[in-house]
Amino acid sequence: MACDRLVLVLGDQLSLGLASLRDLDRERDRVLMAEVETEATYVRHHKKKLALVFSAMRHFAADLAGRGVALDYRRLDEAEPAGSLYEAVAVACAAHDPQEVVLVEPGEWRLRQEMEGWEKRLGRPVRLLEDDRFLCSRADFAAWAEGRKSLRMEHFYREMRRRSGFLMAADGEPEGGKWNFDHDNRKALPADAEIPRPYQARVDAVTEEVLELVEQRFSDHFGSLRPFHYAVTAEQAERALESFVEKRLASFGDYQDAMRQDEPFLFHATIAAYLNLGLLDPHALCARAERAYHEGGAPLNAVEGFIRQVLGWREYVRGLYWLEMPAYAERNALEARRPLPRFWWTGETDMACLAQAVGQTRDEAYAHHIQRLMVLGNFALLAGLAPAAVNYWYLVVYADAYEWVQLPNTHGMVLWADGGRLASKPYAASGKYIDRMSDHCRHCRYDPKQSAGDTACPFNALYWDFIARHRERFRGNPRMAMPLRSLERMAPERVERMRRRAGAFLDSLDYAEEGEW
Ligand code: DLZ
Ligand code: SF4
Protein backbone atom coordinates (compact mmCIF):
# COMPACT_ATOMS: atom_id res chain seq x y z
CA MET A 1 0.00 0.00 0.00
CA ALA A 2 1.31 3.46 -0.89
CA CYS A 3 2.47 5.69 1.96
CA ASP A 4 3.07 9.44 2.11
CA ARG A 5 6.56 9.46 3.52
CA LEU A 6 9.19 6.81 4.03
CA VAL A 7 11.18 7.86 7.11
CA LEU A 8 14.62 6.27 7.26
CA VAL A 9 16.01 6.11 10.81
CA LEU A 10 19.74 5.35 10.99
CA GLY A 11 21.41 3.20 13.60
CA ASP A 12 22.70 6.17 15.60
CA GLN A 13 19.39 8.08 15.48
CA LEU A 14 17.59 6.14 18.20
CA SER A 15 15.75 9.08 19.76
CA LEU A 16 11.96 9.28 20.03
CA GLY A 17 12.27 13.05 19.70
CA LEU A 18 14.13 12.77 16.37
CA ALA A 19 13.08 15.54 13.94
CA SER A 20 11.76 13.01 11.40
CA LEU A 21 9.63 11.18 13.99
CA ARG A 22 8.11 14.21 15.71
CA ASP A 23 5.37 14.86 13.18
CA LEU A 24 4.95 11.30 11.98
CA ASP A 25 1.51 10.51 10.63
CA ARG A 26 0.87 6.99 11.86
CA GLU A 27 -1.81 6.36 9.25
CA ARG A 28 0.11 7.57 6.23
CA ASP A 29 3.86 7.42 6.95
CA ARG A 30 6.16 4.45 7.27
CA VAL A 31 9.46 4.13 9.13
CA LEU A 32 12.36 2.10 7.77
CA MET A 33 15.28 0.80 9.78
CA ALA A 34 17.89 -1.51 8.31
CA GLU A 35 20.84 -3.51 9.60
CA VAL A 36 23.19 -3.56 6.63
CA GLU A 37 26.55 -5.06 5.75
CA THR A 38 27.99 -1.79 4.41
CA GLU A 39 27.54 0.10 7.71
CA ALA A 40 28.83 -2.87 9.70
CA THR A 41 32.00 -3.14 7.63
CA TYR A 42 32.96 0.26 6.13
CA VAL A 43 35.39 0.00 8.99
CA ARG A 44 35.55 -3.35 10.76
CA HIS A 45 33.89 -2.20 13.98
CA HIS A 46 34.66 -3.80 17.34
CA LYS A 47 32.30 -6.73 17.99
CA LYS A 48 30.80 -5.06 21.06
CA LYS A 49 30.07 -1.92 19.08
CA LEU A 50 28.22 -3.95 16.43
CA ALA A 51 26.21 -5.77 19.10
CA LEU A 52 25.38 -2.50 20.84
CA VAL A 53 24.17 -0.81 17.64
CA PHE A 54 22.12 -3.76 16.37
CA SER A 55 20.56 -4.57 19.73
CA ALA A 56 19.74 -0.92 20.39
CA MET A 57 18.23 -0.67 16.88
CA ARG A 58 16.04 -3.74 17.46
CA HIS A 59 14.86 -2.47 20.84
CA PHE A 60 14.11 0.95 19.41
CA ALA A 61 12.16 -0.58 16.51
CA ALA A 62 10.13 -2.69 18.94
CA ASP A 63 9.38 0.46 20.96
CA LEU A 64 8.19 2.30 17.82
CA ALA A 65 6.05 -0.65 16.75
CA GLY A 66 4.55 -0.76 20.25
CA ARG A 67 3.53 2.89 19.76
CA GLY A 68 1.60 1.98 16.64
CA VAL A 69 4.17 3.15 14.10
CA ALA A 70 4.12 1.30 10.75
CA LEU A 71 7.63 0.00 10.39
CA ASP A 72 9.85 -2.02 8.05
CA TYR A 73 12.80 -3.50 9.89
CA ARG A 74 15.48 -5.28 7.85
CA ARG A 75 17.62 -7.72 9.81
CA LEU A 76 21.07 -8.92 8.85
CA ASP A 77 20.04 -12.47 9.69
CA GLU A 78 16.99 -12.58 7.41
CA ALA A 79 17.02 -14.72 4.25
CA GLU A 80 17.95 -11.87 1.91
CA PRO A 81 19.31 -9.00 3.98
CA ALA A 82 19.71 -5.55 2.43
CA GLY A 83 23.32 -5.03 1.34
CA SER A 84 23.32 -1.28 1.89
CA LEU A 85 21.14 1.52 3.20
CA TYR A 86 20.41 2.57 -0.37
CA GLU A 87 19.28 -0.93 -1.27
CA ALA A 88 17.01 -1.06 1.79
CA VAL A 89 15.46 2.29 0.83
CA ALA A 90 15.05 1.24 -2.83
CA VAL A 91 13.28 -2.00 -1.83
CA ALA A 92 11.02 -0.10 0.59
CA CYS A 93 10.23 2.49 -2.12
CA ALA A 94 9.25 -0.29 -4.52
CA ALA A 95 6.98 -1.80 -1.86
CA HIS A 96 5.35 1.37 -0.51
CA ASP A 97 5.72 3.94 -3.31
CA PRO A 98 6.22 6.91 -0.96
CA GLN A 99 5.87 10.48 -2.19
CA GLU A 100 9.16 11.28 -0.55
CA VAL A 101 11.94 9.77 1.51
CA VAL A 102 12.72 11.71 4.69
CA LEU A 103 15.60 11.36 7.09
CA VAL A 104 17.62 13.28 9.61
CA GLU A 105 21.01 14.12 8.11
CA PRO A 106 23.59 11.42 8.82
CA GLY A 107 26.42 12.12 11.25
CA GLU A 108 29.19 11.14 8.88
CA TRP A 109 30.35 12.97 5.79
CA ARG A 110 30.88 9.75 3.81
CA LEU A 111 27.19 8.83 4.07
CA ARG A 112 26.04 12.40 3.44
CA GLN A 113 28.02 12.35 0.18
CA GLU A 114 26.56 9.02 -0.83
CA MET A 115 23.05 10.33 -0.26
CA GLU A 116 23.61 13.18 -2.72
CA GLY A 117 22.90 10.70 -5.50
CA TRP A 118 19.84 9.07 -3.96
CA GLU A 119 17.17 11.37 -5.30
CA LYS A 120 18.18 10.69 -8.87
CA ARG A 121 18.63 6.97 -8.33
CA LEU A 122 15.31 6.58 -6.51
CA GLY A 123 13.42 8.88 -8.86
CA ARG A 124 11.69 10.64 -5.94
CA PRO A 125 12.45 13.47 -3.51
CA VAL A 126 14.82 12.75 -0.62
CA ARG A 127 14.50 15.34 2.15
CA LEU A 128 17.23 15.68 4.76
CA LEU A 129 16.25 17.32 8.06
CA GLU A 130 18.64 19.01 10.41
CA ASP A 131 19.81 16.88 13.35
CA ASP A 132 18.51 19.10 16.14
CA ARG A 133 19.56 16.70 18.89
CA PHE A 134 22.74 18.78 19.09
CA LEU A 135 22.84 21.94 21.18
CA CYS A 136 24.60 23.98 18.51
CA SER A 137 23.39 23.78 14.92
CA ARG A 138 25.90 23.54 12.09
CA ALA A 139 24.83 27.00 10.95
CA ASP A 140 25.34 28.49 14.42
CA PHE A 141 28.78 26.94 14.66
CA ALA A 142 29.73 28.28 11.23
CA ALA A 143 28.53 31.75 12.32
CA TRP A 144 30.62 31.53 15.50
CA ALA A 145 33.69 30.41 13.53
CA GLU A 146 33.28 33.06 10.82
CA GLY A 147 36.24 35.45 10.74
CA ARG A 148 38.05 33.87 13.72
CA LYS A 149 41.73 33.19 13.27
CA SER A 150 41.74 30.35 15.74
CA LEU A 151 38.83 28.18 16.78
CA ARG A 152 39.53 27.55 20.44
CA MET A 153 37.12 25.32 22.31
CA GLU A 154 37.30 27.46 25.43
CA HIS A 155 35.81 30.47 23.63
CA PHE A 156 33.10 28.37 22.05
CA TYR A 157 32.31 26.80 25.41
CA ARG A 158 31.81 30.16 27.13
CA GLU A 159 29.45 31.15 24.38
CA MET A 160 27.49 27.91 24.89
CA ARG A 161 27.36 28.46 28.64
CA ARG A 162 25.94 31.94 28.12
CA ARG A 163 23.47 30.73 25.51
CA SER A 164 22.25 27.71 27.46
CA GLY A 165 22.41 29.27 30.92
CA PHE A 166 24.02 26.12 32.37
CA LEU A 167 26.08 26.93 35.48
CA MET A 168 25.50 30.65 35.12
CA ALA A 169 24.93 32.84 38.17
CA ALA A 170 22.14 35.43 38.23
CA ASP A 171 24.57 38.27 37.47
CA GLY A 172 25.60 36.72 34.12
CA GLU A 173 28.90 35.51 35.54
CA PRO A 174 29.90 31.85 35.54
CA GLU A 175 28.95 29.88 38.65
CA GLY A 176 31.82 29.96 41.14
CA GLY A 177 33.44 32.92 39.36
CA LYS A 178 35.39 30.80 36.85
CA TRP A 179 34.51 29.20 33.53
CA ASN A 180 36.81 26.25 33.90
CA PHE A 181 37.98 24.30 36.95
CA ASP A 182 40.43 22.01 35.19
CA HIS A 183 43.24 23.02 37.51
CA ASP A 184 41.44 21.18 40.30
CA ASN A 185 40.94 18.12 38.10
CA ARG A 186 44.39 16.62 37.90
CA LYS A 187 44.72 14.71 41.14
CA ALA A 188 46.48 11.37 41.27
CA LEU A 189 44.32 8.59 42.66
CA PRO A 190 45.15 7.62 46.27
CA ALA A 191 46.16 3.95 46.57
CA ASP A 192 43.21 3.19 48.85
CA ALA A 193 40.54 4.97 46.76
CA GLU A 194 37.47 2.78 46.32
CA ILE A 195 36.05 2.67 42.85
CA PRO A 196 32.31 1.98 42.50
CA ARG A 197 31.25 -0.52 39.87
CA PRO A 198 29.49 1.01 36.89
CA TYR A 199 25.96 0.01 35.89
CA GLN A 200 25.72 -3.24 33.95
CA ALA A 201 22.63 -4.09 31.91
CA ARG A 202 21.31 -7.64 31.75
CA VAL A 203 21.39 -9.45 28.40
CA ASP A 204 17.81 -10.15 27.24
CA ALA A 205 16.60 -12.44 24.44
CA VAL A 206 16.91 -9.69 21.80
CA THR A 207 20.51 -8.94 22.73
CA GLU A 208 21.32 -12.67 22.93
CA GLU A 209 20.15 -13.13 19.33
CA VAL A 210 22.29 -10.19 18.26
CA LEU A 211 25.32 -11.57 20.09
CA GLU A 212 24.90 -14.83 18.18
CA LEU A 213 24.60 -12.92 14.91
CA VAL A 214 27.79 -10.96 15.58
CA GLU A 215 29.59 -14.12 16.67
CA GLN A 216 28.66 -15.82 13.41
CA ARG A 217 29.10 -13.04 10.89
CA PHE A 218 31.80 -10.86 12.33
CA SER A 219 33.98 -13.31 14.21
CA ASP A 220 37.12 -11.90 12.57
CA HIS A 221 36.45 -8.35 13.79
CA PHE A 222 38.54 -6.92 16.64
CA GLY A 223 37.47 -7.25 20.27
CA SER A 224 35.80 -9.49 22.83
CA LEU A 225 32.06 -9.82 22.44
CA ARG A 226 31.24 -11.34 25.82
CA PRO A 227 30.59 -10.59 28.58
CA PHE A 228 28.26 -7.90 27.23
CA HIS A 229 26.97 -5.30 29.69
CA TYR A 230 26.03 -2.33 27.53
CA ALA A 231 22.66 -0.62 27.95
CA VAL A 232 20.59 -1.08 24.78
CA THR A 233 17.47 1.01 25.53
CA ALA A 234 16.93 4.62 26.56
CA GLU A 235 15.59 3.38 29.88
CA GLN A 236 18.73 1.38 30.63
CA ALA A 237 20.96 4.23 29.47
CA GLU A 238 19.08 6.46 31.91
CA ARG A 239 19.86 3.99 34.68
CA ALA A 240 23.54 4.04 33.70
CA LEU A 241 23.42 7.84 33.93
CA GLU A 242 21.73 7.78 37.34
CA SER A 243 24.29 5.31 38.65
CA PHE A 244 27.07 7.66 37.49
CA VAL A 245 25.45 10.72 39.06
CA GLU A 246 24.86 8.94 42.36
CA LYS A 247 28.12 7.06 42.73
CA ARG A 248 30.85 8.64 40.65
CA LEU A 249 30.12 12.20 39.55
CA ALA A 250 31.30 13.69 42.85
CA SER A 251 34.83 12.30 42.28
CA PHE A 252 34.79 12.57 38.50
CA GLY A 253 36.46 15.99 38.49
CA ASP A 254 39.26 15.28 40.94
CA TYR A 255 40.35 12.05 39.25
CA GLN A 256 39.45 12.86 35.66
CA ASP A 257 43.03 12.43 34.47
CA ALA A 258 44.00 9.51 36.71
CA MET A 259 44.69 5.96 35.57
CA ARG A 260 44.97 2.73 37.46
CA GLN A 261 46.09 -0.78 36.52
CA ASP A 262 43.11 -3.15 35.97
CA GLU A 263 40.56 -0.33 36.46
CA PRO A 264 39.06 0.55 33.09
CA PHE A 265 36.29 2.91 34.24
CA LEU A 266 37.38 4.75 37.41
CA PHE A 267 34.99 7.69 37.97
CA HIS A 268 34.09 8.24 34.33
CA ALA A 269 30.50 8.37 33.14
CA THR A 270 30.93 5.79 30.33
CA ILE A 271 27.78 7.08 28.65
CA ALA A 272 29.25 8.52 25.43
CA ALA A 273 28.21 5.44 23.46
CA TYR A 274 24.57 5.98 24.54
CA LEU A 275 24.67 9.69 23.88
CA ASN A 276 26.07 9.18 20.39
CA LEU A 277 23.45 6.55 19.57
CA GLY A 278 20.66 8.91 20.63
CA LEU A 279 19.62 6.95 23.74
CA LEU A 280 20.49 9.95 25.93
CA ASP A 281 19.88 13.61 25.25
CA PRO A 282 22.72 16.13 25.75
CA HIS A 283 20.52 18.89 27.17
CA ALA A 284 18.95 16.53 29.71
CA LEU A 285 22.41 15.25 30.67
CA CYS A 286 23.70 18.73 31.42
CA ALA A 287 20.52 19.56 33.34
CA ARG A 288 20.89 16.37 35.41
CA ALA A 289 24.51 17.16 36.30
CA GLU A 290 23.63 20.77 37.14
CA ARG A 291 20.83 19.56 39.43
CA ALA A 292 23.31 17.29 41.24
CA TYR A 293 25.45 20.36 41.90
CA HIS A 294 22.56 22.49 43.20
CA GLU A 295 21.35 19.67 45.42
CA GLY A 296 24.81 19.29 46.92
CA GLY A 297 25.46 15.86 45.39
CA ALA A 298 28.61 16.87 43.53
CA PRO A 299 31.11 19.74 43.69
CA LEU A 300 31.43 22.43 41.05
CA ASN A 301 34.75 21.22 39.65
CA ALA A 302 33.20 17.83 38.84
CA VAL A 303 29.96 19.19 37.41
CA GLU A 304 31.61 21.94 35.39
CA GLY A 305 34.11 19.39 33.99
CA PHE A 306 31.30 17.07 32.99
CA ILE A 307 29.13 19.77 31.45
CA ARG A 308 32.14 21.12 29.53
CA GLN A 309 32.56 17.75 27.80
CA VAL A 310 28.92 17.61 26.71
CA LEU A 311 28.03 21.25 26.11
CA GLY A 312 31.47 22.39 25.00
CA TRP A 313 33.77 19.75 23.63
CA ARG A 314 31.24 17.41 22.00
CA GLU A 315 29.40 20.23 20.23
CA TYR A 316 32.66 21.90 19.26
CA VAL A 317 34.19 18.82 17.57
CA ARG A 318 30.98 18.18 15.70
CA GLY A 319 30.84 21.79 14.46
CA LEU A 320 34.49 21.68 13.44
CA TYR A 321 34.03 18.37 11.61
CA TRP A 322 31.26 19.71 9.40
CA LEU A 323 33.03 23.00 8.86
CA GLU A 324 36.27 21.40 7.72
CA MET A 325 35.32 18.18 5.93
CA PRO A 326 36.42 16.68 3.63
CA ALA A 327 39.82 18.43 3.48
CA TYR A 328 40.32 17.99 7.23
CA ALA A 329 40.96 14.24 7.02
CA GLU A 330 43.60 14.68 4.33
CA ARG A 331 45.98 16.87 6.29
CA ASN A 332 49.19 15.47 7.73
CA ALA A 333 50.88 18.53 9.23
CA LEU A 334 53.62 16.59 11.02
CA GLU A 335 54.28 14.34 8.00
CA ALA A 336 53.76 11.21 10.06
CA ARG A 337 53.98 8.03 8.01
CA ARG A 338 54.72 5.06 10.26
CA PRO A 339 52.25 2.13 10.16
CA LEU A 340 50.48 0.90 13.29
CA PRO A 341 52.54 -1.41 15.51
CA ARG A 342 50.85 -4.80 15.76
CA PHE A 343 50.49 -4.46 19.54
CA TRP A 344 47.80 -1.83 18.97
CA TRP A 345 45.62 -4.80 18.00
CA THR A 346 47.05 -7.57 20.14
CA GLY A 347 47.90 -5.65 23.33
CA GLU A 348 51.16 -7.60 23.47
CA THR A 349 53.70 -5.08 24.68
CA ASP A 350 55.90 -4.74 27.73
CA MET A 351 54.78 -1.13 28.13
CA ALA A 352 52.26 -1.60 30.96
CA CYS A 353 50.29 1.62 30.32
CA LEU A 354 49.76 0.69 26.67
CA ALA A 355 49.00 -2.95 27.45
CA GLN A 356 46.28 -1.78 29.86
CA ALA A 357 44.81 0.69 27.37
CA VAL A 358 44.76 -1.75 24.43
CA GLY A 359 43.62 -4.67 26.63
CA GLN A 360 40.59 -2.87 28.03
CA THR A 361 39.80 -1.43 24.60
CA ARG A 362 39.71 -5.00 23.26
CA ASP A 363 37.58 -6.23 26.19
CA GLU A 364 35.23 -3.27 26.72
CA ALA A 365 35.35 -1.18 23.50
CA TYR A 366 36.14 1.58 25.98
CA ALA A 367 39.09 3.56 27.32
CA HIS A 368 38.76 6.90 29.04
CA HIS A 369 39.97 10.14 27.56
CA ILE A 370 43.38 10.28 29.24
CA GLN A 371 44.20 6.78 28.07
CA ARG A 372 43.08 7.73 24.56
CA LEU A 373 44.96 11.03 24.60
CA MET A 374 48.00 10.67 26.85
CA VAL A 375 48.86 6.97 26.55
CA LEU A 376 47.73 5.65 23.15
CA GLY A 377 47.52 9.06 21.55
CA ASN A 378 50.80 10.25 23.00
CA PHE A 379 52.52 7.16 21.64
CA ALA A 380 50.97 7.67 18.19
CA LEU A 381 52.04 11.33 18.15
CA LEU A 382 55.60 10.76 19.36
CA ALA A 383 56.20 7.70 17.17
CA GLY A 384 54.86 9.52 14.10
CA LEU A 385 52.14 6.98 13.30
CA ALA A 386 50.30 7.75 10.06
CA PRO A 387 47.03 9.65 10.71
CA ALA A 388 44.96 7.46 8.39
CA ALA A 389 46.00 4.30 10.28
CA VAL A 390 45.42 5.87 13.69
CA ASN A 391 42.05 7.35 12.69
CA TYR A 392 40.95 3.97 11.38
CA TRP A 393 41.91 2.29 14.65
CA TYR A 394 40.04 4.75 16.87
CA LEU A 395 36.94 4.56 14.69
CA VAL A 396 36.97 0.75 14.83
CA VAL A 397 37.68 0.09 18.47
CA TYR A 398 35.48 2.42 20.54
CA ALA A 399 31.77 1.83 21.04
CA ASP A 400 31.14 5.59 21.04
CA ALA A 401 33.13 6.31 17.86
CA TYR A 402 31.46 7.91 14.85
CA GLU A 403 33.59 9.89 12.47
CA TRP A 404 32.10 13.28 13.41
CA VAL A 405 33.40 12.91 16.94
CA GLN A 406 36.36 10.57 16.41
CA LEU A 407 38.13 12.44 13.63
CA PRO A 408 38.63 15.86 15.28
CA ASN A 409 39.63 14.13 18.50
CA THR A 410 42.19 11.84 16.89
CA HIS A 411 43.35 13.79 13.87
CA GLY A 412 43.32 17.18 15.56
CA MET A 413 43.79 16.75 19.27
CA VAL A 414 45.83 13.54 19.44
CA LEU A 415 47.96 13.79 16.29
CA TRP A 416 48.03 17.53 15.60
CA ALA A 417 47.67 16.45 11.96
CA ASP A 418 45.47 19.50 11.30
CA GLY A 419 48.38 21.82 12.01
CA GLY A 420 46.76 23.36 15.08
CA ARG A 421 43.26 24.13 13.81
CA LEU A 422 41.88 22.48 16.95
CA ALA A 423 44.66 22.45 19.57
CA SER A 424 47.17 25.21 20.14
CA LYS A 425 49.92 22.70 20.88
CA PRO A 426 50.48 18.97 20.50
CA TYR A 427 49.72 16.87 23.58
CA ALA A 428 53.21 15.37 23.85
CA ALA A 429 54.51 14.02 27.15
CA SER A 430 57.29 11.84 28.49
CA GLY A 431 56.93 8.83 30.80
CA LYS A 432 57.01 11.22 33.75
CA TYR A 433 53.45 12.36 33.06
CA ILE A 434 52.10 8.79 32.94
CA ASP A 435 54.01 7.95 36.13
CA ARG A 436 52.47 10.94 37.91
CA MET A 437 48.92 10.14 36.81
CA SER A 438 48.90 6.35 37.22
CA ASP A 439 50.29 3.29 38.95
CA HIS A 440 51.14 1.62 35.64
CA CYS A 441 54.87 2.21 35.94
CA ARG A 442 54.98 0.06 39.06
CA HIS A 443 53.70 -2.82 36.95
CA CYS A 444 56.06 -2.17 34.08
CA ARG A 445 59.45 -3.60 33.15
CA TYR A 446 60.50 -0.07 32.14
CA ASP A 447 61.47 2.75 34.46
CA PRO A 448 59.96 6.20 33.80
CA LYS A 449 62.86 7.89 35.58
CA GLN A 450 65.48 6.52 33.21
CA SER A 451 66.11 7.76 29.72
CA ALA A 452 69.10 5.55 28.80
CA GLY A 453 69.70 1.83 29.13
CA ASP A 454 67.59 -1.24 28.46
CA THR A 455 65.03 -0.53 31.13
CA ALA A 456 64.47 3.15 30.30
CA CYS A 457 60.84 4.04 29.57
CA PRO A 458 60.55 4.29 25.75
CA PHE A 459 58.30 7.34 26.11
CA ASN A 460 61.30 9.39 27.30
CA ALA A 461 63.47 8.86 24.23
CA LEU A 462 60.42 9.13 21.97
CA TYR A 463 59.47 12.44 23.59
CA TRP A 464 62.85 14.10 23.02
CA ASP A 465 63.09 12.65 19.53
CA PHE A 466 59.68 14.21 18.78
CA ILE A 467 60.68 17.62 20.15
CA ALA A 468 64.02 17.54 18.28
CA ARG A 469 62.37 16.33 15.05
CA HIS A 470 59.89 19.22 15.05
CA ARG A 471 61.95 21.94 16.74
CA GLU A 472 61.83 24.25 13.69
CA ARG A 473 58.11 23.85 13.21
CA PHE A 474 57.33 24.74 16.83
CA ARG A 475 59.90 27.49 17.31
CA GLY A 476 57.37 30.31 17.09
CA ASN A 477 54.75 28.59 19.29
CA PRO A 478 54.76 30.14 22.79
CA ARG A 479 53.11 27.01 24.26
CA MET A 480 56.08 24.92 23.08
CA ALA A 481 58.72 27.34 24.40
CA MET A 482 59.45 25.32 27.55
CA PRO A 483 60.30 21.97 25.97
CA LEU A 484 62.27 23.71 23.23
CA ARG A 485 64.32 25.59 25.83
CA SER A 486 64.99 22.34 27.69
CA LEU A 487 66.08 20.69 24.46
CA GLU A 488 68.48 23.51 23.72
CA ARG A 489 70.00 23.23 27.19
CA MET A 490 70.71 19.52 26.69
CA ALA A 491 74.13 18.39 25.52
CA PRO A 492 73.87 17.64 21.77
CA GLU A 493 75.41 14.18 22.28
CA ARG A 494 72.70 13.36 24.80
CA VAL A 495 69.99 14.43 22.38
CA GLU A 496 71.63 12.34 19.65
CA ARG A 497 71.82 9.30 21.93
CA MET A 498 68.18 9.68 22.82
CA ARG A 499 67.17 10.00 19.19
CA ARG A 500 69.15 6.87 18.28
CA ARG A 501 67.46 5.03 21.11
CA ALA A 502 64.02 6.15 19.90
CA GLY A 503 64.89 5.00 16.38
CA ALA A 504 66.17 1.62 17.58
CA PHE A 505 63.05 1.12 19.70
CA LEU A 506 60.74 1.90 16.79
CA ASP A 507 62.78 -0.37 14.49
CA SER A 508 62.40 -3.22 16.97
CA LEU A 509 58.58 -3.19 16.78
CA ASP A 510 56.46 -5.50 14.67
CA TYR A 511 54.09 -3.56 12.38
CA ALA A 512 50.61 -4.48 11.15
CA GLU A 513 50.13 -4.86 7.39
CA GLU A 514 47.71 -2.44 5.76
CA GLY A 515 44.25 -4.04 5.61
CA GLU A 516 45.25 -6.77 8.07
CA TRP A 517 42.54 -5.68 10.48
C1 DLZ B 1 27.45 2.13 13.23
C2 DLZ B 1 26.34 1.49 12.48
C3 DLZ B 1 26.35 0.12 12.24
C4 DLZ B 1 27.43 -0.74 12.75
N1 DLZ B 1 25.38 -0.47 11.56
C5 DLZ B 1 24.34 0.24 11.09
C6 DLZ B 1 23.30 -0.35 10.34
O1 DLZ B 1 23.31 -1.55 10.07
N2 DLZ B 1 22.29 0.42 9.93
C7 DLZ B 1 22.24 1.75 10.18
O2 DLZ B 1 21.28 2.41 9.80
N3 DLZ B 1 23.23 2.35 10.88
C8 DLZ B 1 24.27 1.64 11.33
N4 DLZ B 1 25.28 2.24 12.01
C9 DLZ B 1 25.23 3.70 12.21
C10 DLZ B 1 25.68 4.41 10.92
O3 DLZ B 1 26.97 3.96 10.57
C11 DLZ B 1 25.64 5.91 11.17
O4 DLZ B 1 24.33 6.34 11.05
C12 DLZ B 1 26.48 6.68 10.21
O5 DLZ B 1 27.81 6.34 10.36
C13 DLZ B 1 26.31 8.20 10.39
O6 DLZ B 1 26.69 8.61 11.66
FE1 SF4 C 1 54.30 3.36 30.42
FE2 SF4 C 1 56.90 4.04 30.62
FE3 SF4 C 1 55.40 3.84 32.81
FE4 SF4 C 1 56.07 1.64 31.44
S1 SF4 C 1 57.44 3.03 32.50
S2 SF4 C 1 54.05 2.14 32.26
S3 SF4 C 1 56.02 2.41 29.35
S4 SF4 C 1 55.13 5.29 31.15
In a few lines, what is going on in this structure?
The protein is mainly alpha-helical and 517 residues long.
Summary tags:
globular; binds ligand DLZ; 24 helices; 4% strand; Rossmann fold; Serine Threonine Protein Phosphatase 5, Tetratricopeptide repeat; 3 domains; DNA Cyclobutane Dipyrimidine Photolyase, subunit A, domain 3; five-stranded parallel β-sheet; mainly alpha; 517 residues; binds iron/sulfur cluster
Query: Could you tell me the radius of gyration in angstroms?
Result: 24 Å
In the CATH hierarchy, the architecture of the largest domain is Orthogonal Bundle
CATH topology annotation of the largest domain: DNA Cyclobutane Dipyrimidine Photolyase, subunit A, domain 3
Shape: globular
Mean pLDDT: 96
The H/E string reads EHEHHEHEHHEHHHHHHHHHHHHHHHHHH
Query: What is the structural class?
Result: mainly alpha
Trace the largest sheet across and list its strands. 3-2-1-4-5
- Bound small-molecule species: ligand DLZ, iron/sulfur cluster
The named CATH superfamily of the largest domain: DNA Cyclobutane Dipyrimidine Photolyase, subunit A, domain 3
Strand content: under 5%
Number of helices: 24
Low-pLDDT sequence parts = none
Could you give the distance between the termini?
Answer: 44 Å
How much helix is in the residues?
40-55%
Strand count, sense and closure of the main sheet? Answer: 5 strands, parallel
Which CATH class of the largest domain is shown? Mainly Alpha
Count of β-strands: 5
Number of domains: 3
